[in-house]
Design goal:
- By secondary structure, the protein is mainly alpha-helical.
- The chain has a domain of about 35 residues.
- The chain is built from two helices and no strands.
């Protein structure tokens, strides 16, 4: 009888317990992807800034 009551409670609209962890994993995956993208953009931005800088003038003499 208790099993039937549990099934009825799920049918009425109790949220699925497995949906929350899946949603958290999905959000976490997007956050990690965004962080990796931001780090890559920062590295490329730094490299462009460094490579566009003019070379230092050669020192002549003592």
């Amino acid at each position: 009888m208790a099993a039937q009551a549990g099934r009825d409670a799920r049918l009425v609209g109790e949220p699925d317990r497995a949906a929350a962890p899946a949603a958290l994993w999905l959000i976490g995956a997007f956050v990690i992807r965004f962080v990796v993208l931001a780090v890559n953009v920062a590295i490329v931005w730094y490299l462009i800034a460094v490579l566009r800088r003019p070379a230092p003038a050669e020192r002549v003499g003592p």
